[in-house]
Amino acid sequence: MSSILPDIVASFFAVISTSLLLIMLLYLLKTERQAPHVMSHSKNQKQKLEPAVSIIITARNEEEKISRCISSLIRQSYKNLEIIVVDDNSFDKTRSIAAEFESRDPRVHVLSAGPKPDGWVGKSWPCEVGFQFSKEEILLFVDADSEFEFSALQYSIDYFESSSVDMFSISPRVNLKGIWSKATLPLVSAGINLLYPMKKVNDQKSKRAYVFGTFVLVKRSVYDSIGGHRAIRDRIVEDAAIAQLAKSKGYKLRVMIGDGLITTDWESEFRSIYQGMERIFSDSIRSYGIVSLLNAVLLFILGLYPIAFILGIGIYSTFANNLLIGSNLVSLILNGGLTASVLSIIFAISLDANELRIVKGKRNVGLAPLLYPLGFFLFMSAIITSTIKVSRSKGIEWKGQKFEQRLLSN
After folding, report:
1. Phi and psi based region of residue 218 (left: phi greater than 0; alpha: psi -120 to 50; beta: remaining)
2. β-strands 167-170, 216-219: how paired?
């Protein structure tokens, strides 16, 4: 029995991988089918009186995208708005490009965030600066790399005003360029939809909460009541933090599928993508510390172990000249593990393809799902490196700045 124990253990993990991936795939298909769509909930009927909206754009080194963002907001069918661009200490042409719009449209205002006060991390400080300058009762926080369809605000504010929602967010469609973005974003999407299914987020009885940082619509009174970004100034993943804060205070949160009303870009360069993943993981590591490394182990079992098992069987077959060498029991165990591993790979590709279709808004995703092993490896690596950085207070880099995220126990 002891001689076949390693074969049993090896095949057992292959079966675990298959089972977990199948459960995840079925769960994602179910929850994503239940997710509400903004287009089906908004009548898009232009109201006689459009409530004024203060749009706050935080921008750092976005010279290639800021023009597209501001232009799409100026052209909106919804006209009663002010556009506040807060330059977060950019060292490119972001501010000068925004200033050109300011000179042409009186609704556009360009501000400098200035140095971050002690204790502030991420983009919470420029959000605070924009809020202090704003004057309207409805606030909309957006990212500078976002682009809005002509009726995006009309649809969104129509729903926001006709419902009893206090904070509202819609998902963007994402442009993916290069293998790094195509390998990693599907896992980001799957992680969000697994941990924060929209049905749960929109349920006041559930504690789960998040919003998409590309679009956060909130009543000024609500934002002021929870303390705004000032209350979460030490959180590097500020969008999830402010949603959790609002919901914990009893305010009604609603998240929906954006139906292409907003488009954004995912980072394409390896360094930016990897730092972005470290930023995301650092927030959970901040709470769970070294225990978060178990997530890396889980990712290995799900995405990489089945491939390693098949390679191991291949090497074994090469040297043994016969896969079925040994007892019939050993052959049965190894072939069972091999079958499970093949199914795991099929389920992983299917899961990846499903998430790509959702984030891109396209049915045809080509061969991109085959990059999933690379995505799992990068996720696993980012969890390990961010755990080391947070536990040793080395700081997390993001967009040319370093932010310290301490463990809550420190």
Report:
1. beta
2. antiparallel
Same domain, 136 and 214: yes
400 exposure class (CB count in 10 Å sphere: 0-12, 13-18, 19+): exposed
**252 belongs to a structural domain:** yes
Rounded CA separation 56/35 (Å): 27
* pLDDT, position 410: 46
The residue among 144, 139, 173, 143 whose CA lies nearest residue 156 is: 139
Whether 239 and 317 share a structural domain? no
Indicate if 195 and 247 belong to the same structural domain. yes
State the maximum Cα–Cα separation within the chain, in Å, rounded to a whole number: 82
For range 219-228, the mean pLDDT: 96
Domain contains 277: no
- Residues 61, 92: contact at Cβ < 8 Å? yes
Q: What is the Cα–Cα distance from 190 to 80, expressed in whole angstroms?
A: 37
Residue 268 sits at φ, ψ, to 5 deg, of -110, -25
DSSP string, 238-298: HHHHHHHHHHHTT--EEEEB-TTSEEEE---SHHHHHHHHHHHHHHHHHHHGGGGHHHHHH
Show the domain range for 392.
Answer: 5-30+288-403
pTM recorded for the entire structure: 0.88
Cα separation of 192 and 387, whole Å? 20
Residue 103 contacts residue 384 (beta carbons within 8 Å):
no
Domain tally, the chain: 2
User: Looking at per-residue confidence, does 404 or 357 come out higher?
Assistant: 357
Query: Are residues 68 and 98 both part of a single domain?
Result: yes
pLDDT of 212 over the 90 cut? yes
Asked if the structure places residue 182 within a domain, the reply is: yes
Instruction: Say how many C-beta atoms besides its own lie within 10 A of residue 119's C-beta.
Output: 11
On whether residue 220 sits in a domain, the answer given is: yes
Where residue 178 falls (left for φ over 0; alpha for ψ -120 to 50; beta otherwise) is left
Same domain, 182 and 63: yes
Evaluate if residue 392 carries a pLDDT over 80: no
Instruction: Return d(Cα 97, Cα 64) in angstroms, integer.
Output: 10
